Amino acid sequence: MLLSKENITLVNLITIQQCFGAGSIKAVKIFNCLRDADLLDKAFKESEIKGIIEVKDADKILKIDINKIYKIIDDCLKNNIYTVTICDSNYPERLRNISDCPIVLYIKGEFVDIDNMPLISVVGPRKISDFGKKAAFSLAKRLGRAGMIIVSGAALGADTCAHKGALAAKTKTIAVLGCGICYDYLPENRALRDEISKNGCLISEHPPYAPATKYSFPIRNRIISALSMGTVVIEASLKSGSLITARLANEQGRDVFVIPGNPTLDNYKGSNALLRDGAIPLLNAADIFNQYITAYPDKIDIEKAFAEETVKTEKISRKNLQSGLSNDAKIVYNNLNKLKFTADDLLDLNLSDEQLLSSLTELEIEGLVRALPGGMYEVINH
Predict the structure, then answer these.
(1) Comparing C-alpha atoms, which of 244, 182, 238, 172 is closest to residue 211?
(2) Is-contact 61 34, C-beta < 8 A?
(3) Helix (H, G, I), strand (E, B), or coil: what is residue 219?
(4) pLDDT tens for residues 143-160?
């Protein structure tokens, strides 16, 4: 197999990543050593690399079956998957700046200009509450309508709702997978993955047919958080994987937004712990817009995000409007005595800040109130 310099570099980078695994800091260190020695565009030879890196690491690289690396490249070609490596100019600086950055990314779809676009990650549990499903969908849709790109992991629950919300807004969304792009993990989400690949992209640091493992998902979370300016936690128990993503985002210097929840419910105990430790309370999409509009004035369209959608609705009674609401949300709704208000107008309801914020978010998702710029809300007339 005759290879150009560029293809030799790709073969060598895939080899390093395959030898030392996804999320390996050692892989990054070996890459740096071999790059500094100008060896990445040459076939690896024992006499050269053993003088640059540790003997045991060199032996591991030299023993790999090169035909397996060629097969990975062939699988990419057959499945319209392309690679972006750490040596490429379009490799995101947001990723390059983390210590365990992936050496090679496998991509299907349109790889957007990540460093110059407003990306937000939306994460949450697979077993998510009905309220959480609505929150993930509604938030992603509103952010998408404003021009922001939603990043998530294409898992069941919160991830699925976030991707679908972005797609409903007719904007791009990015799914970071914990397995190869061609590996049929979660067949029930196969159609969603296909839609994402046509309206955004699928990203993985694993070869096309690499299976999922219990370790691959926590490892991929660092990519989800690093690609984005901030991560939104929809809801999280004390053992939620979303806490891993939030911790990684914090370590990477990214913002962490959390929807507050009832402190007595298990699926919000992790969320409220994040708020206690300094995460940003997320009441509505305006909290995110206010954080990033200065950096992306030409990319984020707040007016479009809050533009009223034309929806035909039947007239229904105030009693029926409240069916399915939590008790806290009912208390808030029944005490709305003016058409436009702020959260501060409701401080005398004897609800905690978390309960109040959660209730307002619930009312917005249910279409009973509408968030306005500047922290204002408006009661929707039915």
Answers:
(1) 182
(2) no
(3) helix
(4) 999 999 999 999 999 999
Q: pLDDT band for position 2 (50/70/90)?
A: very low
What are the DSSP E strand ranges found in the chain? 82-85, 104-109, 119-123, 149-152, 173-176, 200-204, 230-233, 255-258, 280-281, 340-342, 369-372, 376-379
List Cα–Cα distances, 342 to 201, 371, 373, 376, in angstroms. Answer: 38, 10, 11, 5
> Mind listing the pLDDT tens digit for each residue in 314-357?
333 455 556 567 888 889 999 998 899 988 899 889 888 778 87
Structural contact between residues 188 and 165, judged by C-beta atoms closer than 8 angstroms: no
The whole-number pLDDT of residue 321 equals 58
Residue 43 has, within 13 A of its CA and on its CB side, a CA count of 7
Q: How far is CA 193 from CA 107, 177, 231, in A?
A: 12, 10, 21
Which residues are 233's β-sheet partners? 123, 258
Tokens encoding 138 = 């509604």
Beta strand 119-123 with 230-233: parallel, antiparallel or unpaired? parallel
Q: Which two tokens stand for residue 236?
A: 């999280």
pLDDT value of residue 119: 98
Tally of CA atoms within 13 A in the half-sphere of 198 that contains its CB: 8
